[in-house]
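Q: I have 510 residues here and want to know how they pack in 3D. Can you give me a structure?
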Amino acid sequence: MGRRAWGCWLSVVSTAVLYGSLALFISILHNVFLLYYVETFVSIYKIDKLSFWVGETVFLIWNSVNDPLFGWLSDRSFLSAPQSGPQITTAEVVLKRLKALSTNGPLFALSFLAFWVAWASPGLQFLLCLCLYDGFLTMVDLHHSALLADLAVSDADRARLNFHCSVFSALGSLSVFLSYSFWDKEDFFSFRLFCVALAAFSILGFFVVSRVLRRRFQKEVRPRLDGAEALKELSVGHAPLTHTEKAVTLRQYLRQLSRHRNFMWFVSMNLVQVFHCHFNNNFFPLFLEHLLSDNITASTGSILLGISYIAPHVNNLYFLTLCQRYGVYQVIRWLFMLKLGLSVAMLLAGADHIYLLCIFIASNRVFTEGTCKLLKLVISDLVDEDFVVNRRQQATSALLFGMVALLTKPGQTFAPLIGTWLLCVYTGYDIFQREPARDSLVAVPEVTSGSGTPPLRLGCFHMVVFVPITCALLQLAAWSRFTLHGRKLQGIKALRQGAQHGSLSDVKAI
């Protein structure tokens, strides 16, 4: 009876739903991590400033190089496949990625738990936890993203997979709603139990979903691929590399990228975007505490926090319709201008308009995260341009995505470093020492230097409006130099479609 029910469940749940549910098991943990890891080590574990900066610096290096490194380690066996003889089929690639997810997913959840229990000196634990967590997160993200190309080829199927990812990512953001209710720096036990429950759910989800997908794939695809119609190409939809063309070395590829002007301007803009996204994540609890906590209830703060995490996934569906009508470039430009306009309006209104400040803090994060979710479309356009300009036989999409991550991920580390420095210099509030800084721009009287004083609140308000203003101005300047849009983009796409004149098989793996 149990097996029959299990088999019935396997036949009812679609592959797109199962694939999208993997995003749920990632987001429920990663959102909590982004929101609380800085505050945990600074306020609870009392990490010193030097250890914090050393840990973030090492994390900066590791976070930048592990994407291309793990990508090569994961796919080097595919790249070294012989040109003649047995070829690695798409079925084998998918099964290998699912096996990697079933292994690295639970390890990712366990590395998440390592943050919330003090098991070493604060400096050492901070360094090891960051590197372990980001390593397993990169492996999970890498294989989950790669499955999108392996499970589906047509635009409609991939859009369906992406849609379910957005839906489950929004559901995963509900963990932020709950986290604010459990978060208490004075009594950390409840929050620890909450994190254990999240990790247990994520481990179970990775194990069950990856196992279901592996069984389904082996049952429905493997026998078909063993026949005469077995796939002979690893990357579905791309022509195999022939021996008539000389392979491009890594040095040559890097030289080509350095001459790719649109790529360089995009990376410059995206570096600021990554910084702003993580600045919002890292300092959201601080802004709630010093700007709003005296005027809103805990439940209101929880709702505000949750909306700021869920709304970007919902807005993404609307932004995609705007992109189809006006183009990705124009929509992103409008979002930059909207961020600048809202920040200037909030600056002019002042810090005393509490409800306006609530709306601004939430909308600032919503539009910033919404922009991030559109950037993969721009990277895809850059892949097309790279393919045409350098006359490649096949698009180097994975390598280009890895290079973008290599050059923009430092913004994730710069966010807490620059944020804590600005807070200390501008407000006189040192989150490490809890004492006013002598060289701060805002003089904080010793008798009023405690948390929640007007100078500290005013300084936090200036940070929450001036950081978006600065980011928006830098991004508009870089984005104005980006030329891959309009007629030029249409011409690039037409040239790529013409170059790939062979009839491409629209193979559905599942």
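Q: Anything worth noting?
A: DSSP finds 18 helices and no strands in the chain. The chain has a mean pLDDT of 76.
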